[in-house]
Design goal:
With about 140 residues, the protein is of the alpha+beta class. It has four helices and nine strands, in the order αβαββββαβαβββ. Strand 7 and strand 8 form a beta hairpin.
Length: about 140
């Protein structure tokens, strides 16, 4: 697979937003924006609710565990955009391409994420300060 093949067809899968109060955030997206709200789930120490607005998705994330990734994010930075997730045709190939290009990875191998998808994160130091999640 060539580098172009790895990124051809890549698209934004969702934007992850860290929130302090999941119920308040869900109410805004559902009642004001008319979003379809998906059932809550848990991954990586976070409580997650996906919301769909047409063909766009947002992942609302919170945690009661101060030592979880989302708990630490909220304590340090407060609510806001946590990550942008890109769907790629071949996650393993995309990670290998990142390694060869010298990008710092938080996950060397895909791992289970929300909705049963495999995910891996690229360190924000490698991507202009934005935590990027890759999924297939």
């Amino acid at each position: 697979m060539t580098p172009t093949d790895v990124v051809t067809g890549a698209r934004i899968a969702h934007v992850g937003v860290a929130v302090r109060d999941l119920d308040d955030a869900v109410r805004f997206y559902r009642d004001i924006l008319g979003a379809h709200v998906h059932p809550p789930q848990a991954a990586d120490g976070a409580r997650i609710v996906g919301v769909s607005l047409g063909d766009s998705d947002v992942e609302l994330l919170t945690s009661d565990d101060a030592d979880s990734p989302i708990g630490r994010f909220l304590a340090k930075r407060g609510p806001g955009i946590h990550h942008v997730c890109f769907r790629v045709p071949d996650l393993a190939a995309a990670l290998e391409q990142c390694r060869r290009a010298g990008y710092q990875l938080l996950d060397q191998q895909p791992r289970p994420g929300a909705d049963g998808h495999r995910v891996a994160f690229v360190h924000p130091k490698a991507t202009a300060g934005i935590l990027l999640e890759l999924t297939d």
